[in-house]
Amino acid sequence: MNPVNYLYLAALLFTIGAAGVLIRRNAIVVFMCIELMLNACNLAFVTFSRMHGNLDGQIIAFFTMVVAAAEVVVGLAIIVSIFRTRHTASVDDASLMKL
Amino acid sequence: MSSVASVHSLWTVAAGAPGKIPAPHIEYTELSPTLIVLGAAVIGILIEALVPRRNRYYSQLLLSLVALAAAFAAVIGLAAGGFGSSKAHIAAMGAIAVDGPALFLQGTILLVSLIAVFTFAERRLDPAAHGNRVDSFAAQPAAVPGGPAEQAAVKAGFTTTEVFPILLFAVGGMLIFPAANDLLTLFIALEVFSLPLYILCALARRQRLLSQEAAVKYFLLGAFSSAFLLFGVALLYGYAGTVGYAGIAQVVSDGAKQIDPALAGTMGNDALLLIGAALVLMGLLFKVGAVPFHMWTPDVYQGAPTPVTGFMAAATKVAAFGALLRLLYVVLPGMRWDWRPVMWGVAIITMLGGAIVAITQTDIKRLLAYSSIAHAGFILAGVIATSEDGVSSVLFYLGAYSFVTLGAFAVVTLVRDAGGEATTLSKWAGLGRRSPLVAAVFAVFLLAFAGIPLTSGFAGKFAVFKAAAQSGAGWLVVVGVLSSAIAAFFYIRVIVLMFFNEPKADGPTVAVPSPLTTTAIAIGVTATLVLGLAPQYFLDLAGHAGVFVR
């Protein structure tokens, strides 16, 4: 199969993730959408690696996975702490500060 | 299809036994500033695990100060050894550049962090709780604010001494960020300094709801923008077949056919270049706080503990502008006719947007946040110059601006009432009559922000606008001067509020700080005045540091 199709898939997944971040209201779901965007990046890296015939892209994919894992650790800690304080994880309720 | 055959030989071993893999060559001396800071951060984590609680504060403080001072000495040593000019080169197998701009910015970041550690360690501003001196950070950040667990932690005298190693990790990432010489290192450094900052934002002792809200906003928006940056990196990799800056720059200027004819079919697609570069720039402009991507700045600056805000406002901006400069000057000079109009637009709306919205602010921390957005616009004007003067003026501006910012936020920590820091602007009325010295110092910082002559702000703005005008961006300079005038209005308004208004009966008091914060503010004032009265030496220094290695 033509590897370019995987690039289209990566772009589609990235767009779904970005749209989800903007539309969904639950901080956990927003965060999952960001992870989807990172995974779309990984798919693009691996596909380009296959097309170019060098391994850089595959190595970068591993780095991205580690970064995504570290981001989960920090992100969930912050989201859980705000959930315990307010008993909600909605990003709309976090509005003590306005213009 | 020879390229397909060569592709398969990469991940099948049947063709023959793999040869010896050469070990990478790492120049430890030239990377020593970063290595010292990150090593100290790891030791700091071990101190948290092994040292008794009552000794942790002093050991962490000592470790952080020694590490940052040693790293700064290492930067000076490298610069004196000629790595900033004649011996500038690419280290660590092409991942890190050791050159003038990198060393200048690393030195600035280290000095700023050293002063930030003083403000982090301040323990005399809040009244003692149960006989224990407390700092700006929560006793036990994981506990629910006001809940029994937190009350027990306060009673037991717990403090979050983890802030020091977390700060050091952030500084380590910031040192790599302006020196990163491939897009992967850029992304990793971005995450290494962002993740600790997200945590630091959530740790305020007072008003923790605001603090946690700031952390969630910063985290979600920061992760969102770094995902865009990463997708941009993927597209640029698809465009050039490499993530190294030099490799991409070569494909941009020469085209793919000259580099590798076999891969000309899959490389050199201009759509990938344009979209990829735009996405990477977007990620960097988010960190800088330029206008379409500035939404997080006021909320995070207001909610985060004030010492963290000062550190973040100063050091993040230095690191992010360093990375932005290197990307535009080393990777994308071949397409500057494409990015210059876009950056023109961004600079103009950043300068005007920051200055105009700041007028309506009623909170001093939000006011300083919008002022930092306006300053990002002024610095962008220097970035657009695409000349050696442009680089050196931006370096000078970043150095001058970061000390003013740090000092201003340190003064904000002093003005307090029963609820902690009194950040509402109306409460600052008449401060100059009650505490003339503190108000006068803050006035110096505000005048420097406004760019009044004899302060560092004027020297910086003059250098940046001169570089921009010489490169033909005259209209940009006109807009810049106009928005400086708008910005001067609200800085002067605060000064008028402090000195020419009657103090309120229930107004805030000015806490007497320990020598730590006093030193931080004194260094801020000294740097502001010295860089304003005698800028030539430092302008020359930045001028010598203005050439990127490729």
Automatic annotation (TrEMBL), chain A:
The chain crosses the membrane at residues 6-23, 28-48, 60-83. GO terms for cellular component: NADH dehydrogenase complex; plasma membrane. It is found in: Cell membrane; Membrane. The keyword Transmembrane helix applies. Pfam families: Oxidored_q2. Its EC number is 7.1.1.-. Keywords: Cell membrane, Membrane, NAD, Oxidoreductase, Quinone, Translocase, Transmembrane, Transmembrane helix, Transport. InterPro entries: NADH_UbQ_OxRdtase_chain4L/K (IPR001133), NUOK/Mnh_C1-like (IPR039428). It is an enzyme of class 7 (translocase). It catalyses: a quinone + NADH + 5 H(+)(in) = a quinol + NAD(+) + 4 H(+)(out). Gene3D superfamilies: 1.10.287.3510. GO terms for molecular function: NADH dehydrogenase (quinone) (non-electrogenic) activity; quinone binding. NCBIfam families: PRK05715.1-2, PRK05715.1-3. HAMAP family: NDH1_NuoK. NDH-1 shuttles electrons from NADH, via FMN and iron-sulfur (Fe-S) centers, to quinones in the respiratory chain. The immediate electron acceptor for the enzyme in this species is believed to be a menaquinone. Couples the redox reaction to proton translocation (for every two electrons transferred, four hydrogen ions are translocated across the cytoplasmic membrane), and thus conserves the redox energy in a proton gradient. NDH-1 is composed of 14 different subunits. Subunits NuoA, H, J, K, L, M, N constitute the membrane sector of the complex. This is NADH-quinone oxidoreductase subunit K. It comes from Streptomyces sioyaensis.
UniProtKB/TrEMBL annotation, chain B:
GO terms for biological process: ATP synthesis coupled electron transport. GO terms for cellular component: endomembrane system; plasma membrane. Belongs to the complex I subunit 2 family. Its EC number is 7.1.1.-. Coiled coil: none annotated. One of its GO terms (molecular function) is NADH dehydrogenase (ubiquinone) activity. The gene is nuoN. This is NADH-quinone oxidoreductase subunit N. It comes from Streptomyces sioyaensis. It is found in: Cell membrane; Endomembrane system; Membrane. Residues 180-486 form the NADH:quinone oxidoreductase/Mrp antiporter transmembrane domain. The chain crosses the membrane at residues 32-51, 63-83, 103-121, 163-180, 186-204, 216-240, 271-296, 308-329, 341-360, 367-387, 393-415, 436-455, 475-500, 512-534. It comes from the Bacteria. The keyword Translocase applies. InterPro entries: NADH-Q_OxRdtase_suN/2 (IPR010096), ND/Mrp_TM (IPR001750). PANTHER family: NADH DEHYDROGENASE. It is a multi-pass membrane protein. It catalyses: a quinone + NADH + 5 H(+)(in) = a quinol + NAD(+) + 4 H(+)(out). NDH-1 shuttles electrons from NADH, via FMN and iron-sulfur (Fe-S) centers, to quinones in the respiratory chain. The immediate electron acceptor for the enzyme in this species is believed to be a menaquinone. Couples the redox reaction to proton translocation (for every two electrons transferred, four hydrogen ions are translocated across the cytoplasmic membrane), and thus conserves the redox energy in a proton gradient. NDH-1 is composed of 14 different subunits. Subunits NuoA, H, J, K, L, M, N constitute the membrane sector of the complex. Keywords: Cell membrane, Membrane, NAD, Oxidoreductase, Quinone, Translocase, Transmembrane, Transmembrane helix, Transport. It holds the Pfam family Proton_antipo_M.
